[in-house]
Design a protein that fits this description.
It is a single chain. By secondary structure, the chain is of the alpha/beta class. The protein has three domains: 83 residues, Orthogonal Bundle (Arc Repressor Mutant, subunit A), CATH 1.10.10; 120 residues, D-Maltodextrin-Binding Protein, domain 2 (3-Layer(aba) Sandwich); 105 residues, 3-Layer(aba) Sandwich (D-Maltodextrin-Binding Protein, domain 2). Helix content is 36%, strand content 23%. It is built from ten helices and 16 strands. Strands 3, 4, 5, 7, 12, 13 and 14 form a seven-stranded mixed beta sheet that branches. A hairpin with a 5-residue loop joins strand 15 and strand 16. The chain is elongated and about 75 Å long.
């Protein structure tokens, strides 16, 4: 039997906590995953996993073997990466997950350069606003805003961006001079993840009371690129991260309004698991990501804290 492959399958099942999720991540049939684990157990002469209709758990022997398997697989990956790096030829499959607007506006237009630089890497990109668990979906690198789903993940701060209010030049000329007088029915809404109510605007300026606006315009979107497009067509005022509005602002389709009011800031992180942190292809991609974001962007502190979803406090990245 191919013991290295069997170890790979076993660690994926242990990480995913499910035969079916492991099979999906490995692009295998469920029966093939089961056969592989049973063959490994026969080879070792022990039971590695207890499984029933409700859950799957490691045996004591499975826990011991999992630790060794991780070390062996990491050593093999490091050896391959070192050899490939010496000849300048990184290879393998790289799975990326990114928010939709980030992917459309920033990442996807640059990926042809990454592919040209590393032709041996097969990059797969999933654009979604409903983040998946990295381990369960075998994701190598995910782009996250402000928080991650697991305290054990490694989050590398990439850049910071501010929320700005913007609209078409024609609409801007008709707006009230103070945001407190802005009609909410002229405001476009951004829908947070799995929410039916648009994000509340909170505008602040030193020496003045905070202004809160709940958008009540006729259009509401769950992606910033759609919001920017509607605002550029004169449909209303949008509150959006400046990174997504930059091109429309540069070509004059949008103008910033109430520029002396602050509306909050977001930090973007490149997130990976500890097991994948040292992989050469992961390092190559995160370095490339920092490279493309370095032009004209505000770089966050490398010690910027990242929140853990559902956890009471933040961790440093």
């Amino acid at each position: 039997m191919d013991k290295l492959w069997a170890m790979t399958v076993f660690t994926r099942v242990a990480d995913a906590g499910s035969f079916s999720r492991a099979a999906e991540a490995l692009d295998m049939a469920n029966a093939s995953v089961t056969t592989c684990i049973r063959g490994l157990e026969r080879e070792l002469g022990v039971t590695l996993l207890h499984r029933d209709t409700r859950r799957l758990r490691l045996t004591e022997e499975g826990e011991v073997f999992l630790g060794h398997a991780r070390q062996i697989l990491q050593s093999v990956e490091t050896a391959e990466a070192d050899v490939q790096a010496r000849v300048g030829a990184l290879s393998g499959r790289l799975s990326i997950e990114t928010p939709i607007s980030f992917g459309h506006a920033l990442l996807c237009p640059e990926l042809p350069r990454f592919a040209a630089r590393y032709p041996g890497i097969e990059t797969s990109v999933t654009l979604t606003n409903q983040p998946h668990h990295l381990i369960e979906r075998a994701i190598d690198v995910a782009i996250r805003m402000d928080q991650v789903e697991d305290a054990e993940f490694i989050a590398r701060p990439i850049f910071e961006t501010d929320y700005i209010a913007c609209c078409s030049p024609q609409l801007a000329a008709t707006l009230a001079p103070h945001p407190a007088k802005l009609d909410p029915h002229r405001c476009l809404g951004l829908l947070p993840e799995e929410r039916a109510v648009s994000m509340l605007w909170r505008l602040q300026r030193e020496g003045e009371a905070e202004v809160e606006i709940r958008p009540q315009g006729s259009l509401h979107f769950n992606t910033s690129d759609a919001l920017v497009g509607a605002a550029a067509e004169g449909a209303g005022v949008a509150l959006v991260l400046d990174i997504f509005a930059r091109q429309a602002l540069a070509d004059g389709r949008l103008v910033q309004v109430y520029p002396d009011w602050q509306a909050g800031r977001k930090t973007f992180f490149a997130v990976t698991t500890r097991a994948r942190l040292g992989a050469a292809k992961v390092r190559a991609f995160t370095d490339f990501l920092e490279e493309i974001m370095a032009v004209g962007q505000q770089r966050p502190s490398p010690n910027r804290a990242v929140a853990v979803r559902g956890a009471p406090r933040a961790r440093k990245a």
